[in-house]
């Protein structure tokens, strides 16, 4: 990630920090919508929508209307999507909750074989939805995973814009988790040092930069990050930081 951040400007990094603080202040749906619209100004998209299921989406991949946040997504399409229950045939949505990686829509579309999936894709294109990306995080202690979709025909080809979205994702996940989830603190116990390194991670610090601040070795910082990741069931340090934020384990 450190090498990839070289593709971002100092202004980009400042914007990411500002969004990190804004995400902590989200207390209602309107503020979450405003946060998503702010992302749309930083990364050119034609629409953004986010959501968080109430249960375990690996068993029942559906997001109730009340837990969907519209950051300027195609309103007619979104209404039809919800009315017709298109989540049952949307190949991107169905695949998302099994891996939570970055999904480029057209790449997933090329793998479909079912007639109803192909009809869904053609219907979405009638509304101007040709290309975009979907990404999110899973919070194991909340049994819920976030889902954010960003529409934009050129988005997947823009390395800087994709990197910005990946950097913003943990903060968007923390914000929507805090808005809709009732976190469970049961069984989660981070040490003071683990909380400290995650807090510096939230500030955008690398392991090396944190080691210089805390006057301990970079290897020790990585050790504490890995311990936190294991305890929080996270795949990487960014996801561990987002989960710790949503659980209230760090400020």
TrEMBL record:
Keyword Transmembrane: no
Superkingdom of source: Bacteria
SUPFAM superfamilies: C-terminal effector domain of the bipartite response regulators (SSF46894), Pheromone-binding domain of LuxR-like quorum-sensing transcription factors (SSF75516)
GO molecular function (one): DNA binding
One BP term from GO: regulation of DNA-templated transcription
HTH luxR-type domain: residues covered: 183-248
Pfam families: Autoind_bind, GerE
Keywords from the named record: DNA-binding, Transcription, Transcription regulation
Record protein name field: LuxR family transcriptional regulator
Protein's organism: Leptospirillum ferriphilum
């Amino acid at each position: 990630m450190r090498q990839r951040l070289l593709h971002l400007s100092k202004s980009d990094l400042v914007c990411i920090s500002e969004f990190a603080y804004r995400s902590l202040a989200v207390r209602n749906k309107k503020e979450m919508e405003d946060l998503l619209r702010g992302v749309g100004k930083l990364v050119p998209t034609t629409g953004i929508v986010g959501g968080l299921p109430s249960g375990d989406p690996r068993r029942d991949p559906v997001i109730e209307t009340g837990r969907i946040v519209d950051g300027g997504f195609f309103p007619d399409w979104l209404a039809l999507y919800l009315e017709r229950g298109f989540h049952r045939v949307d190949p991107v949505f169905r695949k998302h909750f099994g891996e939570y990686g970055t999904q480029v829509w057209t790449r997933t579309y090329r793998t479909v074989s079912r007639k109803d999936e192909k009809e869904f894709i053609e219907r979405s294109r009638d509304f101007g939805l040709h290309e975009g990306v979907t990404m999110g995080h899973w919070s194991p202690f909340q049994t819920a995973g976030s889902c954010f979709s960003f529409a934009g025909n050129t988005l997947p080809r823009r390395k800087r814009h994709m990197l910005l979205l990946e950097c913003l994702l943990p903060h968007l996940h923390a914000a929507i988790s805090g808005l809709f989830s009732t976190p469970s603190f049961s069984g989660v116990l981070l040490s003071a040092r683990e909380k400290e390194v995650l807090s510096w991670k939230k500030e955008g610090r690398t392991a090396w930069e944190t080691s210089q601040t805390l006057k301990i070795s970079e290897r020790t910082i990585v050790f504490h990050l890995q311990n936190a990741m294991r305890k929080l069931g996270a795949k990487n340090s960014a996801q561990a930081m987002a989960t710790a934020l949503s659980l209230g384990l760090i400020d």
